[in-house]
Structure formats: structure tokens, C-alpha cells
Amino acid sequence: MTQADESTSAAARRGLERARRRRGVLAAASATCVLCLVLVVVFADRARRADEASLPGRLAAVELLGFADLALNSGARWLRHPSQVEPAAAMADLPAALDSEPAGGAIAPPVQVLGAGARDVEVVRGPLP
Amino acid sequence: MKRHIALLDYALGALKRRGRRNLAIVFGLAVVVGSFAAVLFLTDALRAEFARSIDVTPDLTVQRVVAGRPALIESSASDGLRSLPGVRSARARIWGYLFIPSLEANVTIVGRREGELGAALATGVVSGRDIDEAVPGEAIVGQALAQRLGLHLGDGLAVPQAQEIRVLEVVGLFEGDSAIHTADVIVVSETDARGLLSVPEDQATDIAVALTTPDEAGVVANRAVQDLGSVRVLDKRLLRRTYELTFDARGGLLAAALVPALIALLLLAWERLTGLGEVERREIGVLKAIGWGISDVLTARMWESAIIAVFGAALGLVGAYLFVFVGGAPGLSAALFGWSTLYPELDLVPAVDAAQLASLLGAVVVPFVAVSIVPAFQAAAIDPDRAMRGLR
Q: I want to staple B285 with a disulfide (CB 3.0 to 4.6 A). Which of B22, B92, B118, B384 is the partner?
């Protein structure tokens, strides 16, 4: 075998070695990705199971209140219980329609409008007389 | 198989040679997939929570409508409704809102009778004890409200009325599990609720109707409208659909706002993949000169795109999950929920199914791989002689 042949085969070996290493890296990265996705599924399943345990309590609270609306809008009266106050609320969310609340707004609406005439509460430390 | 492994080797080498560019595309793809997935995760979790809860609410809710707006209804209307066939129970409810200026928020006042809290106390969702109707001013308070006001069991809350100040004593607290429904709620006796909300003795906010057969909701609703005149009857089954639409619309709007980001990413990918550099052209020229066919070059380039797409999408999905269910979706939740100051501490439960995930990946990853086909074909069709001589 000539020197040129030897250097060519050495280069080919190095090339093969590099390719093998890259395949190893790809396999490791793929395994990490799959593991992360599996972990997400496992955690999601665990969260669902934990939720099953607390569900009776939440349902008892909903049954007590009488409505299932989520407590996400305490600023606007007409949106705290859309199912009760504005059953067609979904229709107010058409694209380009004026939003009935400043959803996503960095600046809150003028609260004087929401609380016109309202008087403030005061905390009285217990025990009460 | 051997051919594909060899082409994969080449694709990996090419990915490494253009490492920074490919990392940027993986990152961009992860951000776009993650943004879409976060909207999907959040919307579905909220929709599922509502769907789980609505089963225990009244089948029908009857509201008086005056001038097209909900108004108080006569409590006696519940007697007429109770006598209708198919009606199991009809109950006049007292509830409403009280604005608290210092919180810049409305709290929901709910009037309940003694003993109705039995199930809530038994499940532990309420700590403390039941309200005693004989003692005026006893209240059970939602968690977010109690935290904002610094209220504990035994404390009092002085609520100004028209002529007097009514002091509510906190005898119970809703626990964190139920915060998504009870964060801003104060449950008091019906008498206190009437006083706080200025509801006259013979009137109520609405009437909750439970049916023996929920399928008869339409018939009973028609009878209620006939008998009571100007009323609006809310059917639980329709409300379920309406609420789903509300979240669909909000989630859809947010997702629509993200479409430009997807388009921008596809344009970026197109620009990056079409702009073959001198070195790449020469490389492809050499490969074709030593015997690579168009399909070989095409396959190698597709491997590159597929690896970028798969890793970008996986990174985006995992990131979105952590962002929504571990981090509580900061920023995004504000856009989806709307303005409020009494946000509950959300303990959202994942509710996305495989079909939705598949459609999400299809909407982002498939266009990404598709957009790389044309540049790949252009690269594969290079004339080797011209490419090696550096000619265009």
C-alpha cells in the first residue's frame, strides 16, 4: 500500500469516525427529546389524576354557588358570569369587533367607571364582639 | 437503508457546518410551535374546567328581562315553576356584585341557606364552619379575596350600606383547589345577601330550576316564558356550547395573531434555504460529479429539514407545557382572560388530546418541511460543472 493510499484510508476512517460520532449525537439528542415528551405526558397524566382527587371539592363549591363560570374577570361585572349575564358573550368576540373588555391591555380601564358610587370596605381584626 | 444512513451522515455533517444558522431556525420554529401550543394548552385547560363544572349547575336559569336587561324577578315565580311537569325543584337565588374600590374589583355575593354548605365542608373545599342563619353577618370568603384583604378566620369585613355599615364575620374560607370558581366570592345568608345587594324581600336575582329529565329543558323553558312573560331562560346545555365558543374565539384570535410569526418563520426558512452559498454550491457540484443523483441531494436536504423541524417542534411543545402548566402562562393568561385584579391562583390541568397536537404540528411543521422542498430541488438541479467552477 502506497503512502497516498494509506493517508486516503486514514482520512476515510476519520470521516467514518466523525459520521459515527454525529450519529451518536443525533441519537442522544433524539432520545433526550423523546424522554422530554414522555415526561410531559407522564406529568400531564399525574396532574389529571391529582385533579380527579380535588374534583369533588370543586364541584361541591360550584354546586353551592350555582354557576360554573370561571373567576377570571373580577373587574367587569358583565363578564364575571358571562353565562348568566351575557349568554351570547361568544358573539362579542368576532375578529375586529370591539372587545367588551380590555383583554390583554397593559393599562386598566378607568376604575371610576366600574365603581361609580361604590364605597370601600374595611377589615376589622377578629375576634369580633 | 444503507443509502439513507449515508445520506443522514451527510445531512448531519451539513447541519454541523451551518450550525449557527440551523440553530437559529430550530429556535425560531420552537418559539412559533411553543406559542401556538401555549394558546392551545391554556384554552383547552380552561374549557375542560368549565365543562367539568357545568354538570352540577341548574338545568335552567330563569331571569326577568326588563328593557332587554336582566332585572330582579319575583320570588313567588318559583312556586309556579315548581308546579310545571318535569320540574324537580325551583329555587329563587339571591346573588350579585359588590364593587370594592380599594381592590378595583367586584366581589360576587352569594346568598345561601344554612346547611347548603354540607357537601363543600365535607369535601374540605371550605375550611371553618357553616354560616349560622340566626347570627347575622356570617360569611365564607374566597381565597384570592381573603389574601388581598389579609382576612383570616374570625376577622371581620365592614361593608358600607346605604344607611349603615354591615360587618361580616369570616367563619369559613374557600380553599385553593376551588379558587378558579370561588376566588372573588363571599357566601352569606340570604338575609345578609338581600341587605348587601339591596334586593327587596319578595324578589330574587333569578330562579334556578332542576329538571327530572334534562332533555325536557326546551319544553319547560317554553312553558316558563308563556307563564311568566318577560323572562329569559338559560339552558345549561346551550351555555356549555356558548362558553366553549367563547374560549374558542379568544384562543382563535390569539392563534390568529400568531400566524404572522409563522409566516415570518417560513419566509426566513425559505430565504435561508434558497440562498445557497458559494461553498454549498461547490459542495453539491462535487457530490454530483462523483455520482450523486438529484434524488440523493434532495433526500439529504430533506433529512436536514426534517431534523430541524422535529427538534424545533419538540422543543416548542416541551417549552409550551412548562410555560403554561409550571409557569402559569405569564403574559399570555392576561391576554386570554382579560383585565382583573382578583386573579385566582390557577392550578390548570392539561386537557389536550393527541389529535389536537397532531393538527398543531401539521399546521407548523408540515409547511416548514414543504417550504424547504423547492430550495432542495433547486440545490439538487445544480449543474456540477458550473457549480465547481463557481458559475451561477
A: B384
In degrees, rounded to 5, the angle at the alpha carbon of residue B261 between the alpha carbons of residues B259 and B263 is 70
C-alpha cell at B81: 315553576
Cα distances (angstroms) measured from residue A7 to each of A75, B43, B221, B291: 77, 61, 90, 23
H-only helix segments in B166-293: 179-182, 190-197, 217-228, 236-274, 278-289
| Helix, strand, or coil (residue B111) | strand
Q: What angle (nearest 5°) sits at the alpha carbon of residue A86, between those of residues A83 and A87? A: 50
Calculate how close chain A gets to B189, using CA atoms only, in Å: 12
Farthest CA pair distance, chain B: 98
Per mean pLDDT, which range of A103-107, B251-255, B362-366 is the poorest? A103-107
Number of continuous H segments (helices) and E segments (strands) in chain A: 4, 1
For residue A24, the chain B residues in CB contact (below 8 A) are none
**Segment holding B46, helix H or strand E:** helix B19-54
- Beta bridge partners, B174, equal B126
Pick from A69, A76, A119: CB nearest B160: A119
Helix axes A3-65, B2-17, angle to 10 degrees: 80
Strands B73-74 and B203-204: antiparallel
List beta partners, residue B277.
none
Radius of gyration of chain B (CA): 31
Tell me: the pLDDT tens digits for B46-63?
A: 888 888 888 899 999 999
pTM, rounded to two decimals: 0.79
Residue B132 to residue B292: CA distance in whole angstroms = 87
Angstrom distance (rounded) from CA B339 to CA A102:
6
> In a mutagenesis test of the B interface, which of A23, A32, A64, A83 is the best target, namely the one with the most B β-carbons within 10 Å?
A64
Amino acid at site B374: V
Q: Which residues, other chains included, contact A31 with Cβ-Cβ below 8 Å and sequence gap of 6+?
A: none
ipTM of the complex: 0.76
Cα of B268 to nearest chain A Cα, Å: 24
Per-residue pLDDT of A18-39, as tens digits, reads 888 888 888 888 898 889 888 8
Q: What is the DSSP letter of A90?
A: G
